[in-house]
Structures
1.
Amino acid sequence: MAASGIAPRILCIGIPVRDLSFRVEAVPGRGSKANASHLAEICGGNALNAAIAIARLGGRVAFAGPMGDARETSSGFIFERMAAEGIETTHIVRMPGLMTPVSAIMIDGTGERTLTIYRDPALWHVKLPDADDLLTDCQAVLVESRCGAFCIDLCSEARRRGVPVIVGVDRAMALTDGLLTAASHLLFASEQVQETAGVGDDAAALKRLAALTPAFLAATRGPRGTIWLNETGEPEETPAFPVQAVDTLGAGDVFHGAFALRLAEGGGTPEALRFAAATAALKCARHGGGQAAPQRIEVEELLAR
């Protein structure tokens, strides 16, 4: 909790997705069929998964970004789920005639996910509300890396106001991407940090990117924990919490949300990383994608153990 006793407010920026999640013994080969043992219809998307995690952990969370036409089924489904989680939706921009993204996801017996997604290309042309509206009473901003096209100016303004900007990176970034310098914290996945830097080693990739950005840099590596650069530019590691993973969908997003919240609460970087690791581990131990994010008491019990 923040020093004032009031839960910090986090602004999450991204594009919500309606997920159809199938559990299968193994992902079927090309041209074949497989029967699923379970089907779940859930809401997802990187920033929305993070927002759900923040709300479950006791933070106040607002969401900004584009969604499809108000009359379509998917947007109505997602709004219902967001309301149930207590996520503020007044800054979401409805885009008439467009479709809210939909994904089909297969979770195999090891918990690994394989997915395909459709995003209407016109969603990228969204214009977000005014920065004063979005950043009022905001202690941190969490952004999907793919959304820089419509939120770079907002992120730069947040940094000008002293508000941390955490970017969750789940795809390779161009070295000219404005989010590299607009962010205060860049949280990569291992594969993406190596691809972005053009280096086949996490620590070396982080060090190369450190020459291009003043942001804090880290790379998550699933059960191998998180590697990050300290204030002197040297790599350190935060171990993962061992769990029997059954569903890794949304784990990185939940990690990003927990990290952003703990940072906004006044926790130091090592503490925020450990808090995020515990939150993501609990999520992986249950099915449901981002909607399997744990409650605060569960995370604190795991940390205490």
2.
Amino acid sequence: MPWAVGGLRLGRDWVAAPDPAALRTRWTVLAGSEGAERDRLFRPSRSRTPTASAAALPGQRSAATARFADAPGPCPDPVRVLREPFDEQWLLPDQRLIDTARPELWRVRDEHQLFLVETPEPMVTAHLPAGRGGRLGRIRPLHRRPGGAEPNLAPGLLPLLGERHGGWVTPEDVLCWILAAGRPGPHGYEVPLAADSGRWRAGLELGHRLLTVQLRGARGGEAPRLPGGRRPYVRSAVGGWPRELSYDADTETLGLGSGTVSPVPAGAWEYEVQGVRVLEGWLAARTAHRGPEADGLAALGPAEWPQSWTSELLALVTTLALLAELAPERAAFEPGPALPAAELRAAGVLPPPAWTRRPASVLDHQEEGPGGQFALL
């Protein structure tokens, strides 16, 4: 996947939140403020201030491009993003508020797109990754153009794999193989390509299961579920605001303040990314606006625990439990002998041409630039 893009840098945490209603409230408060108070709430950076203008984000045609201080405009509809590993939140899609929004990613963001995120274990999401503090690495879109028209793969790779393994190979197949066979190496993430058709098919089968779990029902798929009798349920409702999670391994019960959820397999509770328990990080993101460090717009959030968050928690527990079950199989998977580099070079796969490392030209309409001017592209 030659084309890779650095992660989004928001510059100010208040533009993203687990609750879309909180983002609309923050917009209203900011838009109604003036002068020094607006600057304090906005949290200016070298890239973005209330008096700086910016182009509209591709795909967000209602976005305003006048300076925020002059005409904030209506609040844009929050969009779903991947904020932390396995934590889907919401973002205000206004480039005037985001230090580095990566417009090239917004241009290819649609219902066909998937994003591979570089972390110690690769993650795939249907939502635009907008990570916090480097927790999400570089982003590799599966497709270079909208509509899934052109794969972000080295030219010649799909025909070579199809001929070698006797079947039609899709870009999603390659993505699944990466999930199953890829491993961190001394020069970055390394993906050996199987020379043996049996190992190739085994990797695809494992990778498709991993992909199904990670997508969590996105793109019209069915959300993964644990077998009957092992599915987590709310045993007692969450009341007030939970401060922390607790876990009873004997009863497989997850405590969330006064609320309880069970059964929660130990694998879900212990699941970590970069040394942080995913479930604990998930709760921390949802209680941050009530913490002592919350200030300004970031302190605006729900007054009561939303019931939808409890539903999200159940889905997250299911995802982590299934990934924990698959982890030993993935760790033990052997891709077998790899395709020799000479064969890849002969097929034109290596080295990938320089143009494959750059965004494709995908503009089919003019994009509104700063101050309503159309950019010359």
